[in-house]
Amino acid sequence: MIHTIADIATEFEIRPGQVYTVLNDLGLDHDGTSFEGDNDTLEMVKESCLENMDSKVITLKPNCTPRDVANALGVPQAEIQKSLISKFKIMKAIANPLTEDEAGRIVTSYGFELALAEGPKPKPKVDPRAAIKVGGAVKRPPVVTIMGHVDHGKTSLLDYIRKANVAAKEAGGITQHIGAYQVMLDEGLITFLDTPGHAAFTNMRARGAQVTDIAILVVAADDGIMPQTQEAIQHIQAANVPMIVAVNKCDKPGANPDRVLQQLTEYNVIPEAYGGQTITANVSALTGEGVPELLELIILQADIMDLKADPRGELKGTVVEAKLEKGRGPVATLLIEEGTLKSGDNLVVGQTFGRIKAMTDFRGEKMNEAGPSAPVEILGLSEVPAAGDKIEFFADERTARVEAESRISKARAKEFTNGGRGMTLRDLRSRMQDDGIKNLNLIIKADVHGSVEAVKGMLEKVKNDEVETKIILSGVGQITKADIDLAAASDSIVVGFNARADGEAKKEAEKRKVEIRTYSIIYELIEDIEAAVKGMLAPKFEEQELGEAEIRMRLQFSKKGIVAGSYITEGKITRNAKVRIYRGKELVHEGEVATLKHFKDDVREMTMGQECGITFNNWEDFQEGDRVEAYEMVQINA
Ligand code: GDP
Predict the structure, then answer these.
(1) Where would a tag sit more exposed on the chain, N or C end, judged by fewer CB atoms within 10 A?
(2) Which residues contact 566 (CB under 8 A, 6 or more apart)?
(3) Residues with CB under 6 A from ligand 1
(4) What topology is assigned to 543-636 in CATH?
(5) Nearest CA to 359 among 384, 332, 329?
(6) How much is the pLDDT for 538?
(7) How far is the CA of 191 from the centre of ligand 1 (A)?
(8) What is the 248 CA–ligand 1 centroid distance (Å)?
(9) For 131-139, what is the mean pLDDT?
(10) What is the pTM of this model?
(11) What is the mean pLDDT of the chain?
C-alpha cells in the first residue's frame, strides 16, 4: 500500500521533512512524496510522528536539490529559490544539488535542523551474544584513577605499581602505555587508568562516561593539600566516587602525614583516624613502602562495592585514550564495561566505526577476547574517536558505517544551528525548545565553604515544571581552566560567588564560549538564575563598537558652543552614540554625542571617510588630534 507523506504531515501539523526523519529512523524508504507499507507500518509511522512532533530535524539525502528542500519544508519551489538568492546570494537551478552547507543554511532559516542521511537507516542489529545471555553478572575488577596535585607522585606511584606487579611477573614482558593497565594480586585484579590528573576523569564524566569505580587521591606528605588537590577532591566528590587517600613521599625527612590527615578534615574529607569514613594509606612511591597495603585497601573497597558485570551481556565500553599512529592508523584504548569484545567485531565508536583488525592488551600481547574491566588497544577504526566515546556493537560493517555517518551529519547539523556555542543563561529558553534541554547545568565556585553550601542549597530549589537546575560541581576557590573544561563538556554555566576566573580560565571560556557569571550578592545570583529558568532574564546590555573619528579642528560658534571638526576614520558615528575620547593612550573623556552635523545639516549618522561636526554633552575640552571612539549599548538578551 502506498501512503502519502503530505497527508501525514497535515494530520500532525508538521513538515514533510519531519516525516522523512521518522521514516529514516524506522528504516523505511521513501521518494519524497510517498512510502510503501501495510497498515501496521502506517500506524507505526504515525505513532513515531506523534512522539517526535517537537523534533525539528529534517532529514534529507546528501546532494539534495532546492526542489527536495521545498518538498521537505512544504513550501513552493520558487520561494526556496528566492530565499536562496535574497538571503544567501545563492543561485541554483531547481534540480541542481546543493552543498551540505547551502542546504543547512536554507533549512535553518526556516527554524529547522538539517540531518543528512544516506537512504533509510537499517535498524541496528542486536548483538547475538545478548540473545544467548545465560550467565548473569559476575564479579569484576575495580577501575581505579589516580588524582592529585602536580609533582605529588601520581606517575611514580603508577609506575611503581606497574613494575612491582606486572613486569616482574611477566618474565621479559615489555609494558607499554596504552592509557590503562591491570595488576594481578593474590586477592584479585585491579585496573588502573594511567592518565593521571583529573582532566581525563573530568572530561569523561562530563560526557556521561563514568568509568572510575575508586579514586586514589595522592597527597605529598611534605607538601600537604595544594590547589589541584582541592580541585581533585571537588571532582571526586561531585562524581560520588569513593576515595582512598594515599599520603605519598612518607620516606622524605620533612614528611608529616598527620598534618595531611588533619588538613583533609577542612575539606570535608574525614579520615578514619579522625572518626570519619575515608580510608588513608601512608606510602612511598620511591621505596614502595605501604604500596601493597594501598592495593589491599583498593581490593577491600571493591569487595564492599560488590562490583559486577555480565561477560555475556550486551557489549558496553568506553574509549579511555585514542590517537593516530604512523603506520598503524587510528589506535584506541577501550575499557570494556559489560559483555565481551572480540577481535573482528564491528563497532561504532562515537562518530567513527570499523572492524577490529587487531586487539592487544597493555603488555602488547595479542588477544582475541576482552571482558569486563579489561583495557584493550584496538586497530581498525576509520577515524580517531574521542576519550569518553561509547562503543556499540553492530552485526556488519555496512550497518556500522551508516550509523556512524548519520551521527556525523546530525552532529554537523547541530553544530551549524547553534554555531557550536556553549550554553548561556540567555539562550536557555531557545536551547530548551531546540535541543530539548531540561536541565540548567551549573558549576559553582565560591570563596569559602559556607557560601558554597548556601548557594548550592538555594539553587537546588530553583526549578519549574519544565526545567531543573543541576549542580555538576561545586567547590571553594577561583574559577579555573578545569572548571571551564567541565563546563564546556557538560553544557554548564559557571557561577562564581565572590570568586573570579583566573586569566587562563577567562581565555579558555572565551575560546570555548562558556558563560561565566560572577556575583557578590547572593540574592542577585539566585534572582538571575530564577529569571533565566522562567525565561525572563532582566535586560542585559553589551557594548557594541560603532566607529572612530579624529578631531581635526576646534570650531567656535557663538551660540552652539565649540564644535569638533572631525573625520571618520572607521565605521560610523551616530547622533545617539556614546563616546570615549583618547589623547594618545590616555582616556580624557567619557560621555555622549550631543549633536552631529554635516555642514549645516543635522544628520543621523556619518560614515567612514566623511567629515562632520560633533558636539558633546557638557564637554568642550577636546584638542586637535584627539581620537573619538563611538559605541552604543545594545540589549543582548532581548
Ligand atoms: P606527578 O606530577 O604527580 O605525576 O609526580 P611524579 O610522579 O612525576 O613525581 C614528582 C617528583 O617527586 C619526582 O621527582 C619523583 O621522583 C618524586 N617522588 C614521587 N614519589 C616520591 C616518594 O614517594 N618519595 C620521594 N622521596 N620522592 C618521590
Answers:
(1) C
(2) 549, 550, 551, 552, 573, 611, 612, 613, 614, 628
(3) 148, 150-156, 196, 248-249, 251-252, 284-286
(4) Elongation Factor Tu (Ef-tu); domain 3 (2.40.30)
(5) 332
(6) 54
(7) 21
(8) 8
(9) 63
(10) 0.59
(11) 85
Tell me which of 82 and 122 has the higher pLDDT: 82
Collapsing DSSP to helix, strand or coil, 486 comes out as helix
Render pLDDT for 534-554 as a digit per residue (tens, 0 to 9).
765 555 667 889 999 999 999
Averaged pLDDT, 582-599:
92
Cα 364 to ligand 1 centre (Å): 27
Which residue blocks in 341-443 are alpha helix, DSSP H? 397-418, 428-435
CA–CA separation, 138 vs 128, rounded Å?
A: 20
Ligand 1: which residue has its CA nearest to atom 17?
A: 153
Same fold, 141-306 and 543-636: no
Pocket test for ligand 1, best of 149, 156, 162 (most atoms within 8 A of CB): 156
Residue 127 has a pLDDT of: 47
Q: What is the pLDDT of residues 227-282, one digit of tens each?
A: 889 888 988 888 889 999 999 999 999 899 999 999 999 888 999 999 999 999 99
- Do the strands 188-193 and 143-148 form a parallel or antiparallel pair, or are they unpaired? parallel
What's the rounded Cα separation, in Å, for the pair 314 and 159?
34
Centre of ligand 1 to C-alpha 156, Å, is 5
User: How confident is the model over 61-78, as a mean pLDDT?
Assistant: 88
Which CATH fold topology does 316-417 show? Answer: Elongation Factor Tu (Ef-tu); domain 3 (2.40.30)
Cα(286) to centroid of ligand 1, in Å? 7
- Class in CATH terms, 141-306: alpha beta
Report the candidate in 253, 381, 374, 391 with the shortest Cα–Cα distance to residue 325. Answer: 381
